[in-house]
Amino acid sequence: MRTYDDTFSGQRIYPGKGKLFVRGDSKVFRFQNGKSESLFLQRKNPRRIAWTVLFRRQHRKGISEEVAKKRTRRTVKAQRAIVGASLDVIKERRSMRPEARSAARAAAIKESKDKKQADAAAKKAEKAKLAASAAKGQTGGRVTSKQGAKGAPVKVAAKSR
């Protein structure tokens, strides 16, 4: 015996019962009775109507005696290496005493500051050397534009009354 499910309510439709509704795009809908057909045509949401199968499934009605509560699995945390550090280095850092860790951190900060300072000093020295060599090649130390160097006349400043 061939049975169908009601499109709206989800209940079983036995042979000789129900209605068939074919939409304009040729999609077939089967309804058990006029009640489910009417609600479907009113565009009601079956998940909000208490007697439908979809509502009962969504709100977990009538399944408590059939299925016991599922046991949840505990997630096991696994330690993995990070791009910059291997696993043993990470474990070693974690097992360090707080005083030793803070001392190592302070040393690393001091080292990076010293490096930054040395870089800044080198950059400053380079800049001074460039300025000195530029001043040597210039006459009078005046900065001229490219047009001025080519011999173009100097622009006259605009005067207002």
TrEMBL record:
Keywords: Ribonucleoprotein, Ribosomal protein. GO terms for biological process: cytoplasmic translation. InterPro entries: L24e/L24_sf, Ribosomal_eL24, Ribosomal_eL24-rel_N, Ribosomal_eL24_CS. GO terms for cellular component: cytosolic large ribosomal subunit. GO terms for molecular function: mRNA binding; structural constituent of ribosome. Residues 1-66 form the Large ribosomal subunit protein eL24-related N-terminal domain. Residues 94-129 have a biased composition (Basic and acidic residues). Residues 94-161 are annotated as: Disordered. Residues 146-161 have a biased composition (Low complexity). SUPFAM superfamilies: Glucocorticoid receptor-like (DNA-binding domain) (SSF57716). PANTHER family: 60S RIBOSOMAL PROTEIN L24, RIBOSOMAL PROTEIN L24. Belongs to the eukaryotic ribosomal protein eL24 family. This is Ribosomal protein L24e-domain-containing protein. It comes from Immersiella caudata. The lineage of its organism: Eukaryota, Fungi, Dikarya, Ascomycota, Pezizomycotina.
